[in-house]
Amino acid sequence: MKKAVSLLLNGETLPQLFITIIRYVLPSEDHTIQRLLLLYLEIIDKKDASGKLLPEMILICQNLRNNLQHPNEYIRGVTLRFLCRLHETEIIEPLIPSVLQNLEHRHPFIRRNAIFAVMSIYKLPQGDQLLVDAPEMIEKALSTEHDQSAKRNAFLMLFTCAQERAINYLFSHVDKISEWGEQLQMVVLELIRKVCRTDKGEKKGKYITIIISLLNSPSSAVVYECAGTLVSLSSAPTAIKAAANTYGQLLLSQSDNNVKLIVLDRLQELKSSHREIMVDLVMDVLRALSSPNLDIRRKTLDIILDLITARNVNEIVQMLKKEVVKTQSGELEKNGEYRQMLIQAIHSCAIKFPEVASTVVHLLMDFLGDSNIASASDVVIFVREIIETNPKLRVSIVTRLLDTFYQIRAARVCVGALWITGEYCLSLSEVESGIATIKQCLGELPFFSVTEEGEVTDTSKKPPQQASSITVSSRRPAILSDGTYATQNAASETAFSAPSVIHGSLSSGNLRSLLLTGDFFLAAVVACTLTKLVLRLEEVQSSKVEVNKAVTQALLVMVSMLQLGQSSVLPHPIDSDSYDRILLCIRLLSNTGDDIRKIWLQSCRQSFVKMLSEKQLRETEELKAKAQVSHAQPDDLIDFYHLKSRKVRTP
């Protein structure tokens, strides 16, 4: 039988096999054989080329009738299920009395399949003639049925074939709807959606009352469907708020991440159409950040950022600050990526509402030395923008930046921090602190030294312990251990191996560490920052001696960086752009004019302010363009539901 079914599914006809199966397989009492037999009967062609029923098909009617009266419940159930997939009226008609008898069987498995069989027969082209009083029988069975699955099938049959009877039954049992099973409640919601789409009558309020009562159902699936049905049927604030609250509860109660993402999608849709109502529920939505899943957190933050108002911004920022502090625990693998999302969210809040910047900027500056370069870069971009848009915070930000500068480990973050230092250190104490901080992070100069023996060593490295080999302090010949003579050079070569450059550490300075890796773009930024600080020192420092001292120290740093770039210590030499930039700074400090001073101290800041204003203008235009997006095209079809037939749904 399995082989025959496989061949039929692959396109074979096997007409000669039918009689053999009728003779030898049909009488079998084995349940597996009977199931395969019904599958075989479902697949084979039952009509000839002219569309008439094949004569031999009448042979199976008696067997099906016997199965419908079989003492075994399984045989009865699978046969009734088989009849649901049978469309030949000639075969079904003799079996109708047996099908109707099973509606009153003691076993619920048979009753629920019998109801489905009645519904399938009634939906046939001439089914209303075969079972004239089927809706009445099913309604009677529904009123006496106690099994939830069978009740669901009976109500579905009325909903599909006799909608008015289903509506009458629904309103006559309104008080008991909350006690019905989950499956039956889902069918009720489907009925309400269908009725309200086709009939905009006065009963809509009653249906909404039923939906609201089902919001207290213990089933999450029913509650979710209720919320979606409410949104589709009503735009009243109470209904939308009830649906939003329901989504919020599901978001917190469900552990499945896929369910959470689906609920967040529904909240996103509510936000676009009912933003005012969603604003009141923003803190409930924000609690979804407790999920460890990054996709859920990202989608939650996207929803929240569009719901920020002057009334709730402080609460939201406080919540985001707590989440940032939690990421320092390091318990989760993707804490760095989550921290970056939080920093971007806080940045967005601070740009929209500058008054909250003072509460978050110092906390975020602790993450300038974060191992996650992306989040540290976001922090420095945030600080750069806040220090320009909030002049009152300038002094505290500069002080905090100089205090934490040594913690920065990423070149990209160092570049941003150096630019802020050069642009916003304005007072004498700030300028001197800025120069001192940079010198401290660069370490001792020069970056390497060449000894008499031609050996290259890093000056930040302490001299090694004296080895057991011979040390010569003059150029006079020396007697080696093998009795031969050697000059001091030869003796030095045998005594010491060529040392390698040791990159900077916490003790030698973060800037030094990065420069010794060959990052000469950073060297050019250091030179530019020192140039700006020295030029500003000339304006705020009355002592020429101190100014000349600072100029000399800055020139020494720049020359040392050029020397490092042209040496053989690093695997590649300095690039021409960085070389020209550092050389320009040296020439500028050697001979400064008023025009050049104005360009370095004023024009750069003005360009940054212009960039910020253009960015804000661009974001405003994007929001306007997004608001003007048309949800319907001019050539879209218009759906006139009044012109549709109530029974036949046009495609």
TrEMBL record:
InterPro entries: ARM-like, ARM-type_fold, Clathrin/coatomer_adapt-like_N, COPB1. GO terms for cellular component: COPI vesicle coat; Golgi membrane. SUPFAM superfamilies: ARM repeat (SSF48371). Residues 1-430 form the Clathrin/coatomer adaptor adaptin-like N-terminal domain. Its main location: membrane. Coiled coil: none annotated. Signal peptide: none annotated. It is found in: Cytoplasmic vesicle, COPI-coated vesicle membrane; Golgi apparatus membrane. The coatomer is a cytosolic protein complex that binds to dilysine motifs and reversibly associates with Golgi non-clathrin-coated vesicles, which further mediate biosynthetic protein transport from the ER, via the Golgi up to the trans Golgi network. Coatomer complex is required for budding from Golgi membranes, and is essential for the retrograde Golgi-to-ER transport of dilysine-tagged proteins. PANTHER family: COATOMER SUBUNIT BETA. Oligomeric complex that consists of at least the alpha, beta, beta', gamma, delta, epsilon and zeta subunits. This is Clathrin/coatomer adaptor adaptin-like N-terminal domain-containing protein. It comes from Linum tenue.
